[in-house]
Amino acid sequence: MAGTRVTLPDVAARAGVSLGSASRALHGTGASPAMVERVRAAAAELGYQPDATGRSLRMRKTFQIAFAVADIGNPVYVEMMTAIQSVVAERGYRLVVASTGGSPQSTAELVAGLAAGLVDGLILSPLRTSPELGQQLTSSGMPVVVIGRTGESTLDTVTTDSAGGIGQAVDHLLALGHRRIAFLNGPLDTTPGEARQRGFDAAAPAMAAVGAQAVECRVAADFTVAAGLEAARALLDEHPGRIDALVAANDLLAVGAIKAAVERGLSVPGDLAVTGMDDTELAGVFQPSLTSVSLRSSERGRAAATLLLERLADPGRAATTVTVAPTLISRESSSTLTDEEVAR
Amino acid sequence: MAGTRVTLPDVAARAGVSLGSASRALHGTGASPAMVERVRAAAAELGYQPDATGRSLRMRKTFQIAFAVADIGNPVYVEMMTAIQSVVAERGYRLVVASTGGSPQSTAELVAGLAAGLVDGLILSPLRTSPELGQQLTSSGMPVVVIGRTGESTLDTVTTDSAGGIGQAVDHLLALGHRRIAFLNGPLDTTPGEARQRGFDAAAPAMAAVGAQAVECRVAADFTVAAGLEAARALLDEHPGRIDALVAANDLLAVGAIKAAVERGLSVPGDLAVTGMDDTELAGVFQPSLTSVSLRSSERGRAAATLLLERLADPGRAATTVTVAPTLISRESSSTLTDEEVAR
DNA sequence: CTGAAAGCGCTAACAA
DNA sequence: TTGTTAGCGCTTTCAG
């Protein structure tokens, strides 16, 4: 049973039919019921498993699609991946997860490699983009869906208004009465970093209207808890008692910031309100639970997968952009309740 | 540039050499420097990318390996995956992530599918096993490394002493003076659930020796935060004030338990000490940070990947088992410090 | 509806 | 060292 692979000729021989008939009986169309029955039986008897490689070579199709991200440790991507996986699996595709590294060049290399007949299509969520990358993606001829932005309008894209999401967070904090607001962002040369900065800057009029001030915009080295912790420490130490609310560019930074606040004896939300973004599972679970702007990662993953399947089915169709609206989910980290009330 | 794939014959023609020479010049051995140079140049000129499918079919090798897990949402698996990825990538392999579903049957189906020439090997971390699965794995003839246990000693295996790890957690709590200890486990019909239950049961003598009692062993529906929250609520409500420490079978359950405790106005660790297992990033980051037994997920992933690569290189070698020792990492959730001290 | 045969892109065995 | 050729396992024409 082990080792010796059973091939289609074996099955055909066993069933006493030709190779072509065996193939048609198993996958193709135009075989008589009797033939199908016979071949099926022979295949089952021999424990035949069609060889994916032979099939791929002949059909010029691998039934694999790739999901390429910079940082698979980020729960956002895990969420997207789960969503993508379930959509594509339904249509008989397998998912290959690839790691891009942060830079556009390494992403470009990855795409080139993938284009080598390894996958039928690609869902890409790059942290940093460049015009060249967009170029390469379009010219590679491989079906691609970008989650985020490339500036290349010829590509299928799933976007979300993360800038507007930051605006929602600011509005929320202003409505709760906070007036001295800091912004904790990730690297500005990333797509999300740039967009979220834009969102915070755009909130200036709303803040001015109620006499609130933006105390500082701080940039963490990365969109991670560790980077958020470090940056928030510095931020809080430089403005002791002068910040009453902090908008973080994602949940991981927010968690780092809360940790920094607690280290300094500040209570959250009592002394400092904090909001995150992405509404990862962590947000609902953290202590205190984290107010976060949902960017609907699952939905974006699902949309990207659907878009890719559609393009695979019809390569000539026009590029489509799906936009998903952000929603603020209010939780304890920005409530004005006391800790005891919150505990209830 | 797009669409029309350039193939090896194209390169050979451009370089004015034969197909075979072109192949050898690019990958194989035994080509003159001049030949290599010429072919390289032609390939670069045409933007040649070797086709993975043709190569795989001919070489009977895909350079892909699969990592199959039940629940990719669990940070433990993400950690393993990252480790595996970095090891195998170094040797030119790509990683395919597959989702098994919880049951042995669905795992079996997955393995059968994967065996169809899709991957060269498999790293499997099943939640539930059955003798049949072990059988199938050995007889499939595909190189497999199991992270966990199958009972099949003919398979390469990476294990850890999670039972002993639970013992460490109990000892730790006893040393801190806790005497009424509850155990929050995941499903008992899973490999980790069974092992961790065994570990807690085995700690009975140590507990008896200092006059401590096991208040209850509770089984959550799943190894998730949500299931932990629900189970811990019931547990705490049924034994009000009668539990001073809780051993959770993993970090997710522990986080759920802490949330349940806080809901009930209990302070952690003041009123209830909690320990987790797996030492995920969450443990260090959570508020309060979580004492956890590290099972060295990265190391296990790395070991599994290394084992698999070795087997790929030498299919005939004897099955090896690598065992990784657990270590308790003490943090705030089990400290005896007050919250204020902890904040420092 | 079935059988025969071609060939997807590549590597490796065999000749020269 | 190089060219020629067979063939990996499969699907899909093309005849019959």
TrEMBL record, chains A, B:
Gene3D superfamilies: 3.40.50.2300, lambda repressor-like DNA-binding domains
InterPro entries the record matches: HTH_LacI (IPR000843), LacI/GalR-like_sensor (IPR046335), Lambda_DNA-bd_dom_sf (IPR010982), Peripla_BP_I (IPR028082)
Coiled coil: none
Keyword Transcription included in the entry's annotation: yes
Residue span(s) of domain HTH lacI-type: 6-59
Molecular functions (GO terms): DNA-binding transcription factor activity; transcription cis-regulatory region binding
Signal sequence segment: none
The keyword Transcription regulation is annotated on this UniProt entry: yes
Alphabetically ordered keywords of this record: DNA-binding, Transcription, Transcription regulation
PANTHER family per the UniProt record, alphabetical: HTH-TYPE TRANSCRIPTIONAL REGULATOR GALS, LACI-RELATED TRANSCRIPTIONAL REPRESSOR
Name of the molecule in the record: Transcriptional regulator, LacI family
